[in-house]
């Protein structure tokens, strides 16, 4: 089932918003870190993992989700957080380390928690698998609405937590979907050097559940495949495994010299940027006009600018607040 | 050292580690390296720079993100007489593979009645201070040192890093080699200058289990490890202006622990401040103070003090993290409070 025009517009708009957010993040991140790149400096310190290029995965899956559905994401969380409806201002404040951030500046970019929309993420690879399965278990035990989706990278599918959680979800028939973002790299290690199956969907057979691989980093195809998996979960038919071909346009983290990637690969990624592609398609199919598409760009840019402006001038937590919230 | 007239050259800890690895790999064909991104990337923290070019993929192995598997495999390979050096990128990731570390590597010798040791090195990065938040900034010295069966070393400078690495590889036991990010010499981490020191080209060893007095003093003993050694040295410089002569000890090794050097120093100074960027409770600072109280209570002129990381996860936001970390002024204040 193809998404209707309003969903397609939402998908496009959300991809653009995520991209604008990341471009702004990249620019602000570099402030104060030049000439000698130093992670500790600048308004956004620490590591920064950008997700530009991977937006189709987030919107293709999250278009099906409701606030009560839970998502666990990775160290590369922004596109998913935005598509899941995480409080945008509080998330921006958080990556600046401000008191008004999601956790009051305790978590930062790799640990965005927003209970209002059931979103969490983690900097430990595959760590979201167990908690997502646990949410699905709670929903099943209480016979409540809502499913759980764990997003992980293709590198994470080599981690024990992935296999153990998949098995548990399958044997208990939990309302759970694992979405693997296959951007072909785990930092500098290529997928082909880390696993002997070219596509992780075949691993679903090992758990006795359906698996599907989606090619082309195409938001519509991802939407359709995710729709099938999520419908199964909602119908009580148990978990599914979805692997989605995608690309990260940037390095693993900001500061990555990317010497492991060839210039040709980088060029071809840029030529395959999913956002201009979707824009062209929407215009061709008369879902939006070129002016409307430009408008979306301007509107999203304004939202991002405003969020960053507020975050930049927001208050830092008091130093002693570090000691609070260990226990509640 | 062999050649006294040689030209001095300063190395970062990262370079010193990779040089030690290369020299040991040339010397012993059983030495090999594996871990995430140790190949073409040369290790996220530069620990394996240049090794792939010289030794090839067979002996410098990029692994999948499967720590339980490759650390467990290191134990197995080590029992076969290989000398694996494995990297766990950040010590914070130990949670996914601790079983392989403390139930396998650390207990193999004991369970085999000493017949089947596991001579391997697990190198891992520690430390925060650059806002990488609670899953990428911990030290966890105490966690590893607490569990019997593995040696634990932490260099504070490149000279020690090279010599300790050579000793670690040659040791017949598992050695956890913890290197501090702030000392590593990577451009993207503000590196403490004092860690970049003259390193001989020849191979040499620094013995495991021997602390070093890095500054002599009369009035108070400051004990540190890794990055906190440099903070203690800064504090000692400040204390001199206050008319206080501080002795600074670099532990270098937590297992075995050189209690004697600490005791002898406190015997002289009568005062003790332990500086630790790991969580305070149940950790290194408590162990050092317990040692001094147990074995040297008669020397102590003032209650020992500790400057350690409070028992909270490491926060992301800079003001909060900086509030928690040890620094020279906290150390100076703690030392002054001993008088
Ligand atoms: C348990 C654990 N091991 C290693 C790491 C270091 N690390 C962070 S991201 C990454 C690569 C992840 O690759 P993938 O899962 O494919 O996600 P991607 O970064 O490509 O989005 C690694 C090895 C970690 N954070 N956690």
TrEMBL record, chain B:
GO MF terms, alphabetically ordered: oxidoreductase activity
Family annotation (CDD domains): TPP_PYR_E1-PDHc-beta_like
InterPro entries linked to this entry: THDP-binding, Transketo_C/PFOR_II, Transketolase-like_Pyr-bd, Transketolase_C
Gene3D superfamilies: 3.40.50.920, 3.40.50.970
Keywords: Oxidoreductase, Thiamine pyrophosphate
Short name of any one Pfam family annotated for the protein: Transket_pyr
Domain Transketolase-like pyrimidine-binding residues, every copy: 11-186
Protein name: Alpha-ketoacid dehydrogenase subunit beta
Essential cofactor(s): thiamine diphosphate
């Amino acid at each position: 089932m193809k998404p209707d025009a309003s969903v397609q517009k939402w998908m496009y708009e959300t991809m653009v918003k995520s991209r604008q957010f990341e471009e702004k993040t990249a620019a602000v991140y570099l402030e104060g870190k030049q000439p000698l790149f130093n992670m500790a400096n600048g308004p956004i310190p620490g590591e920064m993992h950008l997700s530009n290029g991977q937006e189709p995965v987030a919107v293709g899956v999250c278009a099906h989700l409701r606030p009560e559905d839970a998502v666990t994401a990775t160290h590369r969380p922004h596109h998913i957080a935005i598509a899941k409806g995480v409080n945008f201002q509080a998330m921006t404040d958080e990556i600046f380390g401000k008191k008004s951030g999601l956790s009051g500046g305790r978590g930062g970019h790799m640990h965005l928690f927003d209970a209002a929309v059931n979103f969490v993420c983690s900097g430990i690879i595959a760590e979201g698998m167990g908690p997502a399965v646990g949410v699905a278990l709670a929903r099943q035990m209480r016979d409540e609405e809502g499913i759980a989706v764990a997003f992980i990278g293709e590198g994470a599918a080599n981690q024990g937590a992935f296999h153990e959680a998949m098995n548990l979800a399958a044997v208990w028939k939990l309302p759970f979907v694992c979405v693997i973002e296959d951007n072909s790299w785990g930092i500098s290690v290529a997928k082909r050097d880390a696993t002997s199956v070219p596509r992780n969907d075949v691993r679903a057979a090992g758990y006795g559940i359906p698996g599907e691989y989606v090619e082309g980093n195409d938001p519509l195809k991802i939407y359709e495949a995710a729709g099938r998996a999520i419908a199964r979960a909602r119908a009580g038919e148990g978990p599914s495994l979805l692997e989605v071909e995608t690309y990260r346009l940037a390095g693993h983290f900001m500061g990555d010299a990317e010497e492991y990637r060839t210039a040709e690969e980088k060029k071809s990624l840029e030529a395959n940027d999913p956002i201009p592609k979707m824009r062209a398609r929407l215009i061709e199919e008369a879902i939006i006009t070129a002016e409307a598409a430009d408008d979306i760009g301007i509107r999203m840019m304004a939202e991002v600018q405003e969020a960053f402006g507020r975050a930049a001038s927001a208050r830092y937590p008091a130093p002693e607040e570090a000691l609070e919230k260990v226990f509640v | 050292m062999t050649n006294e007239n040689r030209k001095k050259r300063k190395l970062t800890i990262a370079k010193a580690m990779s040089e030690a690895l290369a020299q040991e790999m040339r010397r012993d064909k059983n030495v090999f390296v594996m871990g995430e991104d140790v190949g073409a990337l040369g290790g996220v923290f530069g620990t394996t720079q240049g090794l792939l070019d010289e030794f090839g993929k067979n002996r410098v192995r990029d692994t999948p993100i499967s720590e339980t598997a490759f650390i467990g495999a290191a134990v197995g390979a080590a029992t076969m007489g290989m000398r694996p050096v494995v990297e766990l990128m950040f010590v914070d990731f130990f949670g996914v593979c601790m079983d392989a570390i403390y139930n396998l590597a650390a207990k193999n010798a004991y369970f085999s009645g000493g017949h089947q040791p596991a001579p391997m090195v697990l190198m891992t990065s520690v430390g925060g201070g650059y806002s990488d938040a609670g899953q990428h900034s911990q030290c966890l010295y105490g966690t590893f040192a607490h569990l019997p069966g593995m040696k634990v070393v932490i260099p504070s400078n490149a000279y020690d890093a090279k010599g300790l690495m050579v000793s670690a590889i040659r040791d017949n036991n598992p050695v956890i080699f913890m290197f501090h990010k702030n000392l590593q010499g990577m451009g993207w981490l503000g590196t403490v200058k004092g860690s970049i020191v003259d390193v001989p080209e020849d191979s040499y060893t620094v013995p495991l289990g021997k602390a070093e007095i890095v500054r002599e003093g009369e009035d108070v003993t400051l004990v540190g490890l890794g990055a906190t050694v440099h903070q203690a040295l800064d504090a000692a410089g400040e204390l001199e202006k206050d008319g206080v002569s501080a002795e600074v000890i670099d532990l270098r090794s937590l297992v075995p622990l050189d209690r004697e050097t600490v005791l002898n120093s406190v015997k002289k100074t009568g005062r003790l401040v332990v500086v630790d960027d790991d969580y305070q409770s149940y950790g290194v600072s408590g162990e050092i103070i317990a040692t001094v109280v147990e074995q040297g209570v008669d020397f102590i002129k003032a209650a020992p003090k500790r400057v350690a990381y409070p028992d909270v996860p490491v926060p992301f936001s800079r003001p909060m993290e900086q509030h928690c970390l040890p620094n020279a002024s906290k150390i100076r204040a703690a030392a002054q409070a001993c008088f």
